[in-house]
Design a protein that fits this description.
The protein is α/β, with parallel strands linked by helices. The chain contains 7 helices and 7 strands; from the N terminus they run αααββββαββαβαα. Helix 1 crosses helix 2, helix 2 packs across helix 6 and helix 4 runs parallel beside helix 5. It is elongated and about 95 Å long.
């Protein structure tokens, strides 16, 4: 404690000395400037002008940065609201209509030979097609309420059939709910399954291409490796 008090007193003494010598230096400079005003004033005016220009420039830059930040936040909010408006229509679909809609999105983005299984015993292959590069795409579609999460059990079933039963090159799990559970997402990443939750689906509905969304697996920062063909 004594050492800390001595350290604080030393800091206060140092600050007092700095203020003292700073004040003396300023006073000397003022006296010299006054004594040589005719010679000094152009330089002082130039320094003041530069300071004013610099301050104005910084103020404009700061205002621009704040305006840009506010605009980016506004745009992000508008995009989210637009996705939700589109997802409202998706939420109104039956599960059969939802599967057909996902098939249409695949066709829109260049997939070929797209078929909808939509029947009991499809072993997780609700939609099957081929990407532009020839990779086989197998899609599991889950029409869940927005507040729900995809449990690990659902992901386990899809993992067990997507490649073994359907020989998928790209396995895609699409859900209308907001998230996958931690265990479900971890399993998807380990097994190279693309997990597409509500936000990513909303972006797909609004026009983002399937190819651009595949690397965003899960929360947007998931597995960026392409599944091996």
């Amino acid at each position: 404690m004594a050492a800390k008090r001595r350290k604080r007193r030393l800091k206060r003494a140092t600050r007092a000395k700095l203020w003292k010598w700073g004040g003396l230096t300023a006073a000397v400079l003022i006296v010299l400037a006054a004594a040589n005003w005719s010679t000094v004033w152009p330089y002082l005016a130039a320094v003041a002008g530069l300071a004013a220009v610099g301050g104005a420039g910084w103020g404009l830059w700061r205002a621009h940065a704040l305006a840009r930040s506010a605009d980016l936040r506004w745009r992000a909010g508008e995009e989210h609201r637009a996705r939700e408006l589109s997802m409202t229509a998706v939420d109104a679909l039956s599960w059969q209509e939802f599967e057909r809609y996902i098939a249409e999105l695949c066709r829109r983005d260049g997939c070929t030979k797209v078929v909808v299984s939509g029947k009991k015993g499809d072993l997780g292959a609700d939609v099957i097609g081929y990407l532009a590069d020839g990779s086989k795409l197998v899609v599991q579609c889950k029409k869940y309420a927005a507040h729900r999460t995809v449990p690990s059990e659902d992901m386990q079933k899809f993992v067990g059939t997507a490649r073994l039963e359907h020989q998928a090159d790209v396995a895609l799990f699409v859900a209308t709910c907001g998230a996958f559970t931690k265990d479900a997402l971890a399993l998807a990443l380990r097994q190279n399954v693309v997990a597409m939750h509500r936000d990513l689906l909303g972006a797909w509905v609004k026009g983002a291409t399937l190819q651009s969304l595949l690397p965003l697996n899960g929360s947007g920062g998931g597995n960026r490796r392409r599944p091996s063909a």
